[in-house]
Amino acid sequence: MTHNLGDAIRQTRKRLKLTLRDLSERSGLPVSQLSKLENGKQRISVELALKIAGVLQVPVTSFLAMPRATPQARRSITRAGTGTLHETEGLTFEVLCSDFRDKSNLFWTVTVTGRSLDDTGGWRSHSGEEFLQILSGSLELHTRYYEPLILNKGDSILFDGEMEHGYLCASDEPAVLIMSNSMIPPLVGDIG
Length: 192
Fold this sequence. Notes:
The protein is of the alpha+beta class and 192 residues long.
């Protein structure tokens, strides 16, 4: 098991019998930059991790999330239609996979029927990031700093949750989507 990012890249590269130069040619990244990454002298960005993971044919999470000292073997299952429902006017949130303690994301199936911001509770904001993918129907996403955006089946978006945002249905049938909210852990010493 690898203990740091550089080791993970190096071991994967060597397992595939690639030199740094081979990886450089295939990824378009300079040998010097790859060497710095492998030796822990440069932090990796999501963009770099995607390039390297694509060349090495491994999941990008291999380089973005390092394993814990003691691996956990947790899982959470929500059977169709059994999640806890939070219903508000124009919106229904079904909580998915909620039984993990100390998790870093919340997952929801959201059904949007409201056709105006007033119908769906108006503007909202929260810490962390929000990811949406439309499963059916069309959603009109309003955000404080951008023009309203229509998202159709299969479309997805990731945005900063602190930016005020709101949703409304933009199709004849309800908009149904998967939502994930990342949770930022409190800083040490934060209270409440």
